[in-house]
Amino acid sequence: MSDNGHDTPIVRMENIVKRFGTITALDGVDFTVNQQEVVGLLGDNGAGKSTLIKVLTGVYTPTSGQIFFEGKAVEIPSPREARALGIETCYQDLALVNLMSISRNFFLGRELTRKFGPIPWLDVRSMDGTARTALADVGIEIRSSAERVGKLSGGERQSIAIGRALHFGAKLLILDEPTSALSVGETRKVLSYITNARESGLSVIFITHNVHHVYQVADAYTIIRHGKEVGTYMKGDLTEDDIADLITGERES
Q1: Which of 12, 17, 53, 88 has its CA 20 to 30 A from that of 38?
Q2: DSSP letter, residue 5
Q3: Alpha helices in the chain (DSSP H)
Q4: CATH for 1-86+171-253?
């Protein structure tokens, strides 16, 4: 449990089953994220991590099971509904537009405008200033908010996605393999952004198969193997080697 005094989890998924025809992708999975907590969702490729998150974010409808958000039973029929609840997902491709500036990507779909007569124009100056300030608030320094996203490194791209979620009032941030293919230095930065996001009030789901990275920032770990929950463990309960063994099945829960 997070130690900030909030007793109601931000999200609780109970007995989630997802079948695709005769294939059972998720078999009675329970998954909880508490307020202002970073939870590592761990498992090998094909373990069911992505399917569970797609159920949570409205991409898939569960075959059975129940989702609670901030203590209330909810149905999440689409990603739009998930975002309306305050769930933001940063996938590996990040859904950023390379030819657009940092600020345009920051406000993508939420652009600021001002009117000259009856015609609305993009308020580029306001978007540039707001993006720069919002990113700085979570410890992210950028050279220029007018710089094209295509010129940024992988870690810098992750930082924009994290900062954007914070600025627009996300309550739960889902990061899909955020440190994949990053250098040691860039990984360190992204891990610091995750810590800053938690300290700013967000709950975070960190999806990965890299035990070393998630071990540095997670408060708890849920491990999935072959569509079933192996267990949930608090920070300090297990060593990195213990977690790796549970992921591969070399150790039983």
Answers
A1: 17
A2: S
A3: 49-56, 79-85, 102-106, 124-137, 154-167, 184-199, 211-217, 240-248
A4: 3.40.50.300
